[in-house]
Fold this protein.
Amino acid sequence: MTRAPIDSPYGDLPLDDWAPPADEDAPPPYDDGPPPYDDVPPGYDAMPGPGPAPRYAAPVPDAGLLASGTAASDDALPQHRDFTGADPLTVLKEVYGYDAFRGDQADIVAQVVGGGDAIVLMPTGGGKSVTYQVPALVRPGTGLVVSPLIALMHDQVEALLANGVRAAFLNSTQSPAERAAVERAYVAGDLDLLYVAPERLNLSSTAALLSRGRLSVIAIDEAHCVSQWGHDFRPDYLALGGLGEQFPGVPRMALTATATRATHREITERLGLGDAKHFVASFDRPNIQYRIEPKVDPRRQLVSFIRSQQEGGSAGIVYALSRKSVEQAAEYLRTQGIDALAYHAGLPAEMRARHQSRFLREDGVVMVATIAFGMGIDKPDVRFVAHIDLPKSVEGYYQETGRAGRDGEPSVVWMAYGLGDVVQQRRMIDQSPGDRTYKMRLGQHLDAMLALCETVGCRRQNLLGYFGQQSEPCGNCDTCLTPPETFDGLVPAQKLLSTVVRLQRERNQSFGAGQIIDILRGADTERIRQQRHNELATYGIGADLSDQDWRSVVRQLLARGILVAKGDYGTLALGEPAAAVLRGDEQVPLRRDVMGRPASAPRARRASASDTLAEGDRGLFEALREWRAQTAREQGVPAYIVFGDATLRALAEHRPAALADLDGISGIGAKKKDAYGEAVLEVIAAS
């Protein structure tokens, strides 16, 4: 195995930040396999699932369909009201407990109920599921939902069952007998919604099954997976364009939370939705605060951030690129007293299921995971998301950070970003399969992500601008609350570039950032003396800047393409704009990193769910939370399946005294009123 030289830039690499300090014989951090490709789908409709699904108990009385997706018996389907032909607003109130649709929901529902196709771009937490679930209940037949995520199928079916909706799924976690029970229910017309993975939908046996029943609507979730240039391409999505011919007259929907204009066009073309009506909601998530800071001491920074966010037992997700990094980070967090669990595709299926179950059901659990995890988890009360590695695209970053605050409550997303992240991502692009055009697209995705990291303006404004939406500065992200200082970086850039040029021309040598910085700072190291780099004209000309300052300069020049990282060890070379910089023909404004500020610095304290309550109502809110936790444990379901925090807050504010009063509480439909109404009133009366 080729070993990384001691002067390689990997001392800053995120994959090694969780390991003990490396010695000269330490292997490069890619021994675990080049992330993030270690979590590609292992096979048929298995992307990315938790392993065997936890066998939840029925969430409410008479909810006969278990989360396994099958009926306890063929006649054990939930007792329900037939909403065929009903007013969609009636369905919204009776099933979900909401008095009015939000944003474009009403128009989308009307389009689909009327038999029209729709393409829906709506942020995570914006209520996409309602736009296809309500039409599925109003139109005759069964709504077909195509979802690439097994875990998400489980969670959504659980939530639907809790609301009295007859829902099930078909996927590879089921036994033949379980699948047969679901198939019989579908053919008999006893299902309101059926979830399938695209891989299964493309089987001839599934097509034959669907033709034996009646479909009310076809909803293709995560539709951006059809984009071959997207961050989450799934080849089986390409075949979904034929559903219109296979099921004429059935309205089709394509839904996604992440799509640029180019991806939007690709969804339209590849899914055969040229006649669809387009609904594009704002991608803004105003309840999320965005923070990105320089990577100095990532262990300390991550622990500080998590501790600042875990008031009241908040749950969070920490994203890393590789399995090794995930396991090291989770282990370290546990040594710091943080209840952290690892999750990646290399863990045994039973362990993944156990960890997922704990994360969904317990307070204060932090999941450290590869990107495969969060995409399949429908947990609305994730209060924070952290990245210890740089995402490879803005779309990926937006989708991953979008797992926070899906309930609309204040949440924080944080990332530590350093020089090694840039080197690592550039190398991954160089080593990726594909032609020059493909690699160029990957480079463009990375450039946009780096621009978000290095911006001196509002991060939210930059993020929304990437998706083609205009906005004013938010006043709540880190750069708005603490505007970064900028300085003229022309001279430092020229010094650095000159050193790279002299090494190449005078010595025919290339080195990583570590050795270049040592030369500039005039370091007296054995490597400097061995290579006689103390004889270079640029030796010591950068002693006025610290090692961390120079790393910031290198990082920003790499982000702009003025420098490029080459080869396995990230040796530095000049990019195309470098000549103009050396001549002094181009300005190089750089941001000055603020070092040593803890992640918990009070830029803006995240409000807890109870902060908006009057002092006298907070005790009741906590009592309701305790009741919810106990009820969820008894029924074997996540707490949010019972009620969300917003519903508990409304109960604490309004203090209903009779069952009829619950009709005015958002989030309490008829089924949950019957299941939990008396118990809730008892808690309120006792407070």
Summary: The first helix runs from residue 88 to 96. Confidence is low (pLDDT under 50) at residues 1-78, 596-606. The domain at 288-484 is CATH 3.40.50.300 (Rossmann fold).
